[in-house]
Amino acid sequence: MNEEIETSRVNFNKKGYVKSAENVIRFLKDENFHVVTNRKNGKGDYLTMSAIRNILSETSAIYDTVRSQGVETARIKLSYLKVKLVYQSGRNAAVKRFVKVSNLLGALDKVNEYYEKPEEKDWIILFCRYMEALVAYFKYYGGKD
């Protein structure tokens, strides 16, 4: 499926993030959370709960930081999270698929658009909640470890 069509499932705003998370996970569920990396034998990578919980743990730390220490400290962690997402995507094709379909990098870029604006904290929190929703729906729709 076309990447542009896939990321159009994501409506990263206060009203649409929960439905977007559900749409992303339902789409990946239809692929059995699997990305074939070897066409000859059909082997590949699976998206696992531990893989996305690792991302969630970083996101939870950002949520705690933005609430207790402020936006400036959270910005540093957001930048590091982006690097980790890119790295994990390079290691595992299913994580890469998850990151692309969920448009996590785009969502981080959207948060960055509010740099030093009054709404910046709200957008950081929204990103964290979007990630929580992705994990919740992954578990709900049968994602396994």
TrEMBL record:
Keyword Heme (UniProt): no
Q: Which InterPro entries match?
A: CRISPR-assoc_prot_Csm2_III-A
| Domain of life according to the entry | Bacteria
Q: List keywords of the entry alphabetically.
A: Antiviral defense, RNA-binding
List where this protein forms a coiled coil.
none
Q: Signal peptide position in this chain? A: none
Matching Pfam families, A to Z?
Csm2_III-A
GO biological process per UniProt: defense response to virus
The protein's GO terms of the molecular function aspect are:
RNA binding
Function statement: This subunit may be involved in monitoring complementarity of crRNA and target RNA.
**Which family, according to the similarity comment?**
Belongs to the CRISPR-associated Csm2 family.
- Record-given protein name: CRISPR system Cms protein Csm2
